[in-house]
Automatic annotation (TrEMBL):
Gene Ontology cellular component list: plasma membrane
UniProt keyword list: Membrane, Transmembrane, Transmembrane helix
Keyword flag Membrane: yes
Name the record gives this protein: Fosmidomycin resistance protein
Top-rank lineage group of the source organism: Bacteria
Keyword Membrane: yes
Length: 58
């Protein structure tokens, strides 16, 4: 039951994202939106900078 909720949420947010990106592509340009989307993985790469949750023994 929860997995269905997660899948539904993923599809719903994907659809909303497509609408928003489509509107932005109309306002600006498709090239700009493609460049913007290609930079999104950089946000994920910043997770390497987060501190570790492992406890160190001193």
């Amino acid at each position: 039951m929860v997995s269905g909720l997660i899948v539904g949420l993923a599809f719903g947010l994907g659809a909303l994202g497509a609408v928003v990106l489509g509107k932005l592509a109309d306002v600006y340009s498709l090239q700009f939106i493609m460049l913007l989307c290609s930079c999104l993985p950089l946000i994920g790469l910043t997770s390497w900078l987060l501190p570790s949750d492992k406890k160190t023994i001193e």
